Amino acid sequence: MEEKKEPVKPTKKIKLNCAKCGKKLEQKEALIHKNIDGKQEIICHDCFKEATGVDYKTFMYRREAAKQTLFATIFCIAVTIYAFVAEGWEYGVAGIFITILIFLFSAKVK
Ligand SMILES: [Zn+2]
């Protein structure tokens, strides 16, 4: 028996359209955005900006900054606890002070 073998087709690029303006999007350009109803829709950068009031880069920057602040704060708290236990309460207090400073500073940067 002869088996028919079809040549392997290159995987089709998924074509996406913006749910708001209908613009064709490359996969890397497509943004998943939750609308007011909580439904996910695929939109373009322009519509994202329109919907959220910030452009996507700013949004990502803010999100990244918030994440970094969180990590820095957690790290400082951990160091503070360690200092408190290992070195004494004076270091613990200093650690809390530094943690608050870092937190305030990164909140201001945003
Ligand atoms: Zn759009």
Summarize the structure.
By secondary structure, the protein is mainly alpha-helical. It has helices spanning 45-52, 56-87, 89-109; strands spanning 16-17, 24-25, 31-34, 40-43. Helix content is 55%, strand content 11%.
Describe what you observe in this structure:
The structure is a single chain. The chain is mainly alpha-helical. It has 2 domains: 41 residues, no CATH class; 54 residues. The protein is 55% helix and 11% strand. The protein contains 3 helices and 4 strands, in the order ββββααα. The protein has a two-stranded antiparallel sheet. Strand 1 and strand 2 form a beta hairpin. The protein starts with 15 loop residues before the first strand and ends with a helix. The relative contact order is 0.09. Zinc ion binds next to helix 1.
Question: What is the helix content?
Answer: 55-70%
Using the alpha-carbon principal axes, give the shape: elongated
**Largest sheet report:** 2 strands, antiparallel
| Strand order of the biggest β-sheet | 1-2
